[in-house]
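Posting for a labmate who doesn't have an account.
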Amino acid sequence: MLNSVEASQPHQDQMEKSAKALTQRWDDWFADPIDLADARELVIDTRQFLADVPAHTSFTNAQLLEIMMAQDFQDLTGQVIKRMMDVIQEIERQLLMVLLENIPEQESRPKRENQSLLNGPQVDTSKAGVVASQGQVDDLLDSLGF
């Protein structure tokens, strides 16, 4: 699109410059009419400008059409992408529904408390030097000064 705009600008600038110059020359002529030869040159230049205008406007119209077509293409592309995203979201939603509907049911088993964890370390009380009860532990701590 920028290429079309850049291509059209010189044509528009040239028409603007020529139109301003001719307007100034005509204003000067109406303010102070000049001789016939200069007036004839002004008329010839004006006719040449008018002959050039269709070529410039035709070129500009072609560039504007190209810009419009590019925008339509982008709009169509955007519409296609939007539709594809809608389809993808619908497929995702349906797949999630299929997964949720087909989740295998699991029996909820009551949690068993592991009673063996509360037993503490296994102590062989028949060996010498092994403390077998809390009373023996308290006596040992007293003898050590605690």
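Reply:
Got it, the structure tokens are right above this. The radius of gyration is 49 Å.
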